Structures are given as C-alpha cells and as structure tokens.
Amino acid sequence: MGAKDKAKAKAEQAKGRLKETTGKVTGDRRMEAEGRVEKTKGHLHDAVEKARRNVKRK
C-alpha cells in the first residue's frame, strides 16, 4: 500500500468517525449513518490494499 493510499484511507476513516460522533451527539441519524458508511469505506480500502500486497508477495 502506498503511503498516499494509506493516508487517504486513514483520513476517510477519521472523517467517518467524526461524522458518526457528531450525528450521535446532535441526534442526527442520517449524519451518523453517513459517518458509519465513510468509516467502513476507509476500512475496506485498507483491507483491499493489504490483500493486493499479499497477492503480489506470493
């Protein structure tokens, strides 16, 4: 995983966590759900890149 891709995935996870927390605090279910989606997308990007790296090694 390139440093740029890793940073992008981590930023997406952080943005999602922030939105999710803000949604919980304000009671905005839509924002909370959007945050969960963004956070999950970030985790998914990490997992895909790790799988690619493992396939290249073998």
Structure description:
The structure is a single chain. This protein is mainly alpha-helical and 58 residues long. It is 91% helix and 0% strand. The chain is built from 2 helices and no strands. Helix 1 runs antiparallel to helix 2. The longest helix has 29 residues, at 29-57. It is elongated, with a radius of gyration of 14 Å. It starts with a helix and ends with a helix. The model has no long low-confidence stretch (mean pLDDT 91).
Q: Estimate percent helicity.
A: over 70%
So how many helices? 2
Most strands sheet: none
Order of helices and strands: HH
Oligomer category: single chain
User: Structural class of the secondary structure composition?
Assistant: mainly alpha
Provide the residue-averaged pLDDT.
Answer: 91
| Strand percent estimate | under 5%
For the secondary structure, the number of strands is: 0
The low-pLDDT segments are none
Shape, please? elongated
Radius of gyration: 14 Å
Report the span from N to C terminus: 16 Å
Question: How would you concisely characterize the structure shown here?
Answer:
The protein is mostly helical and about 60 residues long. The chain has helices at about 5-25, 30-55.
Task: Provide key terms for this protein.
mainly alpha; about 60 residues; 2 helices; about 90% helix; single chain
Task: Describe the protein's topology.
Blueprint: H1 3-26, H2 29-57
Helix pairs in contact: 1-2
